[in-house]
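2024-03-11 09:14:02 DEBUG pipeline.ingest accepted 1 chain
2024-03-11 09:14:02 DEBUG pipeline.ingest length=108
2024-03-11 09:14:03 DEBUG pipeline.predict start
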Amino acid sequence: MKKQIASFAIVLNGAFFVPEALAKKWTVTQRIEKLGAEINEGRKANELTVKQMTELQDEITSMKARMEKMKEKNGGKLSVPDTKKLHDDMTDISVKMTRMRLNNVYSD
């Protein structure tokens, strides 16, 4: 019985904790592309309305424009603080999109 519990804990440990070295490192551009694809998938699955899809796409377009301005100010590259800010903004958009999709699917 103790061996079963010990092996179960190892499985749980491996399932819930991914070493940082193995975690996927997304660039800003990769993440923007992924968000755009998720928005389109949400619309195709009827989990987002056209209005919601347009709103989210407008936010992505605005973010791309801000990213280009940030690059211009820093010699064509994003600074570390700018990269963090963009990732934080993308997280906000992702949470908003997920909330919209779930509300549309599970609303009464």
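2024-03-11 09:14:41 DEBUG pipeline.report The chain has four helices and no strands.
2024-03-11 09:14:41 DEBUG pipeline.predict end
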